[in-house]
Amino acid sequence: MVRLAATLIYILQTILYTGIVVYAPSLALNQVTGFDLWGSVVATGIVCTFYCTLGGLKAVVWTDAFQMIVMVVGFVTVLVRGTTLNGGSTKIWEDAYEGSRLNIFDFDVDPLRRHTFWTIVIGGTFTWLGLYGVNQSTIQRCISCKSEKHAKLALYLNLLGLWTVLVCAVFCGLVMYSHYKSCDPWTAEFISAPDQLMPYFVMDIFSSMPGVPGLFVACAFSGTLSTVAASINALATVTFEDLVKKGFPNLSEKMSTWISKGLCILYGVLCTSMAAAASLLGGVVQASLSIHGMCGGPMLGLFTLGIVFPCANWKGAIGGLLAGITLAFWAGTGSFIYPAPPIKSIPLQLSTFNCTLANSTEALTTAAPTAAPERPLLADTWYSLSYLYFSAVGCLGCAITGLLISFITGPSKGENIPPVLIKPVCNLFCFWSERLKTSLWCGVRHDSQEVDFEKNLPKVVANKTGTDDTFKNNTNKENKCQFPGYNPEENSYTNMSRESRL
Questions:
Q1: Which helix (H) or strand (E) segment is 244 a member of?
Q2: CB of 114 within 8 A of CB of 454?
Q3: Measured between alpha carbons, how far is 97 from 99 in angstroms, rounded to an integer?
């Protein structure tokens, strides 16, 4: 039941998030080429579904690698051209400093502030733990590697690529601010959404260079295609393994393949359709991280219960997951309906001093303020919580509620849990007291096994008693059955089925 609940939450999270991802580059294509917005959405969904269905995970991985190169080339091209037109990197840095765009170390502890040092560090930690620790799209790529050593190397390379993209995106933002510091296109209503600012900038600086804006469109779509294809593949994999195979365990290989391909098509249609809802969620980056927090946070809390707390039982897991989802969706949905007031989001000043209308030479003027709509009591407190904290709320809500329910209904007995399944984090904080550590193990026999959690290979400490020798022999036999593919030369595990069915 716990696995089923987690599967359904993951499916919901991925469909919502993928809808946002499909919608984002369609805005760019609409701005650059004038191509119909919803025609672009449909075309994106068809292309992703097509090569994901035919090529499977292997096609997803190889296209990801190629699309990463296209993305970086597009970013670098925009950076070089934008920096040249705006007086060089020193001038851009000075403009950003004068415009308060470099205020990184804001240590305000108010959780209602959208972006501070603490919201990014604490909230970002929970959000990225959910993405890299318990998200199927990431995990399936790790287990498709040849060995554990290769999976770690892949994650390190992914980290390097992520930093590269983030740094390029940040510096592109600074270049755009320097270029438009006296005439903001969004405030001037030259564009209909903040997410169209980058493509508008590209069309502006490359207007005399035909063909180059197409590189930017390719850059935007590369990120979309890689994300959407991976999401569709992960959705099909999870549905087949956790739902279809449970109901029909005796399916033939051929039938399994056809069902998997059919699931890819089904989820391709659902994710493309969800782009319509994404258009109502505001900024793309904030909406996507909010979705990850609302769904990924409770999932992270569920896995934390299972890995860290041996006393948690299935009733606590279900109750905690429901509580975490309720809290996260309550805060997240409320924030979409009642956005935080300007005093909390603190938008930086945007000037339209040098802007002129297309058919006029008069400077734009600011419209008269309108009366603020009536807001409920929670709108300026709970609903104004920074979107980066949604994951932390869901995770902590799930873990705390799960522990309470587990103790009320009767905690699990640690003696029945293999030590390799539990991470004794209490050892880090209770190193001065062996008695306290043992009590916090909740009965798990960590003292009878010396576990290397990086290698996932339990080693039994040889004792003098014959009982422990028998336990050692039985454990070694059990480990050989439970952990196939162990490579003693690399001290890692080899994936015995490298080729994915999808």
A1: none
A2: no
A3: 5
Contact residues for 223 (Cβ-Cβ < 8 A; gap 6+): 21, 25, 67, 71
Q: Do residues 122 and 354 lie in contact, with contact meaning Cβ atoms separated by under 8 Å?
A: no
Kindly report the pTM of this predicted structure.
0.76
Q: Please report the sign of the dihedral spanned by the C-alpha atoms of residue 60, residue 241, residue 299, residue 494.
A: negative
**Calpha distance 419→359 (Å, rounded):** 74
Q: Pick left, alpha or beta for residue 100 (phi over 0 → left; psi -120 to 50 → alpha; otherwise beta).
A: left
What mean pLDDT do residues 210-223 have?
A: 75
Helices 314-337 and 297-308 cross at an angle (nearest 10°) of: 160
Distance CA 340, CA 282 (A): 13
Task: Give long-range contacts, CB 8 A cutoff, 24+ apart: 483-486.
Answer: 483/456, 483/457, 486/457
Give 251's contacts (C-beta < 8 A, 6+ positions apart).
Answer: 244, 245, 259
Q: Cα dist. 69→3, 51, 220, 315, 427 in Å?
A: 37, 19, 12, 47, 43
Q: What pLDDT band is residue 361 in, cutting at 50, 70 and 90? A: very low
Task: Write the CB contacts of 347 (distance below 8 Å, at least 6 apart in sequence).
Answer: none
The Cα 470–Cα 301 span in angstroms is: 37
- Is the pLDDT score of 47 beyond 50? yes
Helices (H), 240-313: 245-247, 253-273, 275-278, 284-291, 297-308
What is the percent of the chain with per-residue pLDDT over 70, rounded to a whole number? 79
Question: Which element (helix H / strand E) includes 486?
Answer: strand 486-487
Q: pLDDT digit string (tens) for 110-152?
A: 898 888 899 999 999 999 999 898 888 788 788 888 888 899 9
CA distance 223 to 195: 15
CA-to-CA dists, residue 384 to 18, 26, 112, 289, 393, angstroms: 25, 29, 6, 15, 13
Angle, vertex CA 169, rays to CA 165 and CA 170, nearest 5:
120
Coil, strand or helix at 135: coil
d(CA 385, CA 339): 10
Nearest to 354 by CA among 345, 346, 364, 344: 364
Whether the Cβ atoms of residue 479 and residue 419 lie closer than 8 Å to each other: no
Tracing tokens 């009591």 back to the chain, one arrives at: 377
252: left (phi over 0), alpha (psi -120 to 50) or beta: beta
Q: Give the per-residue SS3 of 37-53.
A: HHHHHHHHHHHHHHHHH
Distance of CA 157 to the CA centre of its chain: 17
Note whether 465 and 448 are within 8 A (CB).
Answer: no
